[in-house]
Structure formats: C-alpha cells, structure tokens
Amino acid sequence: MIGDAIDARRLLSLRYDDDVLPRSFQPAALYFSSGEKVCVTGIQISNPAELQSNGEPRVFEVGRIRTVEITDQPFRQPATIDRSDSRYAGGIIKSV
Fold it and tell me: Domains (ranges, CATH) in the chain?
C-alpha cells in the first residue's frame, strides 16, 4: 500500500505505535534498512499529537505502523532522496 501511495503521489494517513489519532505523511522512499527492517521515509505533514513536528522529515519502521490508508490528497512537492545515502544500502524498494 505504501508503494502504491508513492506511485500515485498521494498522502498516507497512518497510526504509528501508540498513536491515538492518525498522522498525515508524504512517503518518499520505501527501503530495507541496514538492520534488515523495511522502513519508509518522507515528510510528516501533520501529527495531532506533536504539532511542532509538522513538515519535518520522518522515518517509520513499517512493522510498527498500526493502520495505513492512501488518501485522495496528492503530494504538493515530492520529497527528494539522496540514493547514495548509507541508510539505503540495504536497497530501495520504491521511491519518488
């Protein structure tokens, strides 16, 4: 589903770990971390629990995402990723 959101350039609504309310997130890359976990990086558009963190880059471990939905909201400006960054050494599954 995260890969589909990247392809469609749509925001995700997700709840991570103990989130009570969903966050709005712009996914940029789905990848294998050096610890062999699947992660997604991008820009957090909104988080009702931490308003000061809106608009900041975030990395989420996919296995800790409790719920996820693709929204109808398109990306405004796709986030760019540096494919030479060592965090992507395990391999990029999908990216903008």
Answer: 2-95 (2.30.30)
